[in-house]
Amino acid sequence: MEKKNKIKRIALLGPESTAKSTLAEQLANHYNTVWVKEYSREYLAQLNRKYTINDVLTIAKEQLENENKLIKNANQLIFADTELIISKVWCEDVFNSCPDWIKENLIPNKYDLYLLTFPDLEWISDPVRENPHRRTFFFEWYERELVAIKARYEIIKGTGADRLNNCITNVENFLADTKK
Questions:
Q1: What angle is formed at CA 15 by the lines to CA 13 and CA 16, rounded to 5 degrees?
Q2: Has residue 5 got a pLDDT over 90?
Q3: CA distances (Å), 168 to each of 6, 11, 23, 31, 99, in order?
Q4: I need a surface site. Which of 29, 53, 78, 113 has the fewest CB within 10 A?
C-alpha cells in the first residue's frame, strides 16, 4: 500500500471511440510503466446477454481490483483506461440510478490527473460501443463530473501523434507541478 501512495495515478476518461485505450498503452510505453486495460470490453464481449446494472458494478469493482494488482509493477505512474466516473455515468444514463458502491468509491479512488478525451476523432464501430451520436453529450457529462469532484483534468484533442503529444505535454506539466 505504501508504494500505491507514491505512484501517480492518471486516468483516461472520455466518450467511446476517442482513443483512450490506444493512448493509455502509448503513454505507459512512453513512461516505461504499466497501464490498466478497460475490463468492460472483455466482460461484455463474453456476456451473451444484455448487461444489467449489477454487471456494471461487477465491471467497476474488477477494474479497480486490476489496477490495485498492476500498481505494484508501476514505475512512478500508472495509466488507467477508464475508471469509476464512467461507471457512474453509464449506470445513470442506462438505468437512471447508480449503485452506492460506485458513488462511495469515487472520491477515495480519485486520480491525480484525468486526461479527458475530446470526441474529435472519427467514430469506429465495434460490438461493445453503443453511442455514436452522443459523444459530445457524454464528454460534457464527464467534464461536469470532474468539476464536481474538483479533479485536476486536461482536455485532450488532436489526431495521431498530436493527440499523444498533447497527453505527454499535459503529463509533463502535471509532473512538474507535483515537484514544486
A1: 115
A2: no
A3: 20, 13, 10, 9, 34
A4: 29
Q: How far apart are CA 56 and CA 91, in angstroms?
A: 7
CB 83 within 8 A of CB 107: no
Provide the residue range defining the domain that includes 8: 2-178
- At 49, is the secondary structure helix, strand, or coil? coil
Q: What pLDDT does 129 receive? A: 82
Place of cell 509532473: 175
User: What is the pTM (predicted TM-score) of this model?
Assistant: 0.94
Q: What is the distance between the alpha carbons of residues 79 and 36, in angstroms, rounded to a whole number?
A: 6
Alpha-carbon distance of 20 to 26, in angstroms, equals: 10
Count of alpha carbons within 13 Å of 104, Cβ hemisphere only?
5
| Cβ-proximal residues to 122 (8 Å cutoff; 6+ apart), any chain | 17
3-state SS class at 154: strand
Q: Residue 82: which CATH number?
A: 3.40.50.300
| pLDDT tens, position by position, 123-132 | 887 777 878 8
What single letter denotes the amino acid at residue 140? E
- Count how many domains the chain has: 1
Residue entry with cell 469493482: 61
Across residues 56-74, what is the average pLDDT? Answer: 97
